[in-house]
Automatic annotation (TrEMBL):
<keyword id="KW-0812">Transmembrane</keyword>
<keyword id="KW-0813">Transport</keyword>
<keyword id="KW-1003">Cell membrane</keyword>
<dbReference type="Pfam" id="PF03547">
    <property type="entry name" value="Mem_trans"/>
</dbReference>
<keyword id="KW-0472">Membrane</keyword>
<feature type="transmembrane region" description="Helical">
    <location>
        <begin position="171"/>
        <end position="189"/>
    </location>
</feature>
<comment type="similarity">
    <text>Belongs to the auxin efflux carrier (TC 2.A.69) family.</text>
</comment>
<protein>
    <submittedName>
        <fullName>AEC family transporter</fullName>
    </submittedName>
</protein>
<feature type="transmembrane region" description="Helical">
    <location>
        <begin position="260"/>
        <end position="279"/>
    </location>
</feature>
<dbReference type="InterPro" id="IPR004776">
    <property type="entry name" value="Mem_transp_PIN-like"/>
</dbReference>
<keyword id="KW-1133">Transmembrane helix</keyword>
<feature type="transmembrane region" description="Helical">
    <location>
        <begin position="68"/>
        <end position="86"/>
    </location>
</feature>
<feature type="transmembrane region" description="Helical">
    <location>
        <begin position="40"/>
        <end position="56"/>
    </location>
</feature>
<feature type="transmembrane region" description="Helical">
    <location>
        <begin position="291"/>
        <end position="309"/>
    </location>
</feature>
<feature type="transmembrane region" description="Helical">
    <location>
        <begin position="232"/>
        <end position="254"/>
    </location>
</feature>
<feature type="transmembrane region" description="Helical">
    <location>
        <begin position="127"/>
        <end position="150"/>
    </location>
</feature>
<dbReference type="InterPro" id="IPR038770">
    <property type="entry name" value="Na+/solute_symporter_sf"/>
</dbReference>
Length: 313
């Protein structure tokens, strides 16, 4: 089996669970109230348990944290400049541009960790967890800044500054960031996890990815896709093709290799997070375009992820 075919086969279970989540939501099983509760459980309990255990127990000797972070942040900066320059062409108005921006820059951590676990060894999973620690706060602040400037609710400079301050506070309290910081503190202090704690976290961590992937599928919707074909197509191209190519280039520039390179490239090929829709709805983005872009990137990623991973790794 070729490398491309092997990657595609390994990703089939990941996307099959996403499809199962979409089907369950359409069949209204187990009920509409289940999915918001499931998302909160994954976000506040299961996913932090996974990240904390992964980082606190990992061997970080082969992870190039600094160069990997520099490569990711540099690629993101270049992508942001390209999107801003292309704004008059890719979107008909400010709110539509915010959805293109979010779709092209945000990432689905559930898909990423599931793909890392399915395709690679524990070192790549650890490196990917560290990517989360670097990129989650950066992207949250960047997306809120763009929404405050171009969204339908864009206001005065003072109100925008207040919004960014509130977002910064939300980032500081983000359970994923706190879990990564706590796991990193355990690493620095070289403190082993007590066996009982480790076993509890292991059980919780095993539930994070399947439930998270089901929630990803449940959030997918095709509403507004055809009406917004151009911005959605631009978002897909930016997120699934241009971003991984930029990361590959900056990784070469900063000398990233091994598990860190694999994690960085995997980061680049991921579809957009459904959380982008929530932010668009709250801050005056084009929510329907955002939902369509999340669905389109997730569906398209099933084809593009194996190709880009095979090409760039």
């Amino acid at each position: 089996m070729s490398g491309l075919a092997a990657v595609a086969v390994a990703l089939v279970p990941v996307f099959a669970v996403i499809v199962a989540g979409a089907g369950m939501r359409r069949l209204r099983f187990p009920g509409e109230s289940f999915w918001p509760a499931a998302e909160r459980l994954v976000y506040y309990v299961l996913f932090p348990a996974l990240l904390f255990r992964t980082i606190s127990t990992a061997n970080l000797t082969d992870v190039q944290v600094g160069p990997m972070a520099a490569a990711l942040l540099s690629a993101l900066a270049i992508l942001i400049v390209i999107l801003l320059l292309a704004r008059p062409v890719v979107a008909r108005n400010g709110p539509a541009f915010t959805s293109v921006f979010q779709a092209a820059t945000r990432f689905n951590t559930y898909v990423g960790l599931a793909a890392a676990a399915a395709l690679f060894d524990a070192e790549v999973v650890t490196a990917f967890a560290l990517c989360i620690a670097v990129m989650v706060p950066t992207l949250n602040l960047a997306c809120v800044a763009i929404l405050s400037l171009y969204g339908a609710r864009a206001g005065s400079a003072g109100s925008r500054l207040g919004l960014l301050r509130r977002t910064a506070w939300d980032v500081v309290r983000n359970p994923l960031i706190l879990a990564c910081l706590a796991g990193g503190a355990m690493q620095v202090a070289q403190l082993p996890l007590p066996r009982l704690v480790d076993e509890v976290l292991f059980i919780l961590a095993r539930a994070a990815l399947p439930l998270g992937l089901l929630a990803v599928g449940a959030a997918l919707t095709a509403n507004g896709l055809l009406e917004r074909l151009r911005p959605v197509a631009v978002a897909c191209a930016g997120k699934l093709v241009l971003f991984p190519l930029l990361i590959a280039g900056t990784a070469i520039l900063f000398g990233v290799s091994g598990p860190s390179l694999t994690a960085a490239i995997l980061w680049g090929v991921l579809p957009t997070s459904p959380a982008a829709y929530v932010l668009a709805r709250q801050l005056g983005g084009d929510a329907e375009a955002m939902a369509a872009a999340v669905t389109a990137t997730t569906v398209a990623a099933f084809a593009t992820m194996p190709v880009m991973l095979d090409l760039l790794l």
